[in-house]
Write a structure and sequence with these properties.
Elements (H helix, E strand, L loop, with lengths): L2 H23 L3 H8 L3 H20 L7 H6 L15 E7 L2 E6 L4 H14 L1
Antiparallel strand pairs: 1-2
Helix pairs in contact: 1-3
Length: 121
């Protein structure tokens, strides 16, 4: 492992800690950043880097994310009313993940789902 790789890993670990602290604070990102003297640009830069690292790890065949990456990521389950499989309008399949958006899905659910996919791919 060379010094550049070590430096990048240390920087990523620092970004992960920052994201986790913000998420654990119970405050909005804007509030937490203001209180900690961090620009929101810097916060979102590191959030993107952490997500990219998680995607690269998963795409390279890693079965489990390192705990530091797991702690920095937040996933939310969006509940939909019970529907039959045949009601699915959109199905997205990626590396062991399947997302179905059904007829009658709320526009906000669709928007959030697409935004989440965009941010990790």
């Amino acid at each position: 492992m060379n010094t550049i790789t070590v430096k990048n890993q240390l920087s990523l670990a620092q970004g992960q800690r920052m994201i986790k602290e913000c998420q654990d604070s119970g405050k909005t990102t804007a509030e937490w950043c203001a209180e900690n003297g961090i620009t929101r640009w810097k916060y979102y830069y590191w959030l993107k880097k952490v997500r990219e690292a998680a995607c690269e790890h998963m795409m390279s065949g890693g079965s489990q994310l390192p705990s530091a990456l797991q702690e920095a990521l937040v996933f939310a389950e969006l509940k939909q009313p019970n529907c039959h499989i045949k009601d699915a309008v959109i199905t997205v399949r990626m590396e062991g993940i399947e997302i179905e958006i059904r007829n009658g899905a709320d526009g906000a659910v669709i928007a959030h789902t697409l935004q989440a996919l965009k941010s990790i791919c």
